[in-house]
Structure formats: C-alpha cells, structure tokens
Design a protein that fits this description.
The chain has helices spanning 17-23, 25-28, 34-46, 58-85, 88-101. It is mainly alpha-helical and 107 residues long. Helix 3 (34-46) runs antiparallel to helix 4 and helix 4 (58-85) runs antiparallel to helix 5.
Length: 107
C-alpha cells in the first residue's frame, strides 16, 4: 500500500524477519527446555545488526533501539540457560556474542 509520501506492508500478507524476531519475546526470558532454547537460537541467528543502519529517522531510531535491546535480552537469556543446563559451549558462544553486541554489559 502507498499514498503520496508513505509506503507500508500488510503484515497479514508479508512476513518479515523483524516481526518473526519480535513474536517470540514472551518465552524468551524464561527458557525451560532445549526446544525453547533452540527456537531462541534461531531468532538470534536472524539478527544481522542494526536495522537500516545509516538511515536517520525518529521512528526508525526507536525501532532500531528496541530491536538491539531485544537481541541483548535474547543473548543474556541463552547464556543463563547455558549456565543452568551446564552447557559450556552455549555459554561461551552467546557470552562472546553478547560481549561484541554490548561490551559494557556487566551481566
């Protein structure tokens, strides 16, 4: 759809990685099984960096910030799940990604 100055997508007709990334936020903070962890790992793999980096629009800056925060939350959740399950490989993998994503994260 479009009008004189805007373009938008019908979420019923078009799937985006951003929507997929966001749709799983509910279970993402309290993983209880390997199946949930694997689903969250797939979401983490969707993240490729800041949304439309270099484009400076107020609405986009807010959206970009929310997605970056969500990505950090997912990584912290996976590190905690790795600690809980004793999976050293997962701990290291996601702790390294978290350190790259947010070097000042103290968790």
């Amino acid at each position: 759809f479009s009008d004189s100055g805007s373009l938008w997508l019908d979420a019923e007709l078009v799937s985006t990685d951003v929507n997929e990334f966001r749709n799983e936020e509910d279970f993402a903070t309290d993983l209880r099984s390997d199946t949930q962890a694997n689903s969250l790992i797939k979401l983490v793999e969707l993240y490729r960096g800041p949304l439309l980096e270099g484009v400076n629009e107020p609405w986009l800056n807010r959206e970009r910030s929310l997605l970056e925060e969500t990505y950090g939350t997912y990584l912290r959740t996976l590190v905690r799940f790795g600690v809980k399950s004793g999976d050293t490989a997962k701990i290291l993998l996601f702790a390294q990604r978290l350190a790259v994503h947010d070097p000042l994260d103290v968790e």
